[in-house]
Specification:
By secondary structure, this protein is an alpha+beta fold. It has 3 helices and 3 strands, in the order ααβαββ. The protein has 2 domains: about 45 residues; about 40 residues, no CATH class. The longest helix has 23 residues. About 5% of the residues are buried. It comes from Homalodisca liturata.
C-alpha cells in the first residue's frame, strides 16, 4: 500500500506558494525592487524565524501565610466545589484559619 500525503498539507503548501507569488507580483507591480521569488521567500522565512523576546510576566507575591490547607482527621464537604459547581465533594483538607458560623472548619479540595 502506497502512503499518500495528507490532502490538507498539500492544499496548505499550495495556498502558501500562491500567496508568495501574488506578493511578488504586487511588489514588482508597485515599483518595488526587482526581487527574485527565491529571495522573497528567503526574506519572509528569515522574518518569521527571528527570535522574538517573550514578555516577562509579573511575579505574583506569595499568598498570605495565614490561610493554608491543613490535613484533618475527619472528612468534611468542600465549600468551594459546592459554591461553584453545586457538587457535594468530601475532603479531609480544610483552611486552618477560616470557620463558618457554628465554628466548623471550612473544607477545601
Amino acid at each position: 500500500p502506497r502512503k499518500s500525503l495528507r490532502w490538507y498539507v498539500k492544499i496548505f503548501f499550495h495556498l502558501l506558494d500562491a500567496s508568495l507569488w501574488n506578493s511578488k507580483y504586487i511588489l514588482c507591480k508597485n515599483g518595488g525592487s526587482k526581487i527574485t521569488y527565491l529571495d522573497l521567500r528567503n526574506t519572509i522565512i528569515a522574518h518569521f524565524l527571528q527570535v522574538q523576546p517573550t514578555p516577562q510576566r509579573p511575579v505574583r507575591p506569595r499568598p498570605n501565610e495565614q490561610h493554608r490547607l491543613v490535613k484533618g482527621d475527619r472528612r468534611v464537604r468542600c465549600r468551594q466545589c459546592f459554591k461553584t459547581q453545586k457538587k457535594r465533594k468530601a475532603t479531609i483538607y480544610y483552611c486552618e484559619v477560616c470557620t463558618d458560623n457554628s465554628d466548623n472548619k471550612i473544607g477545601l479540595c
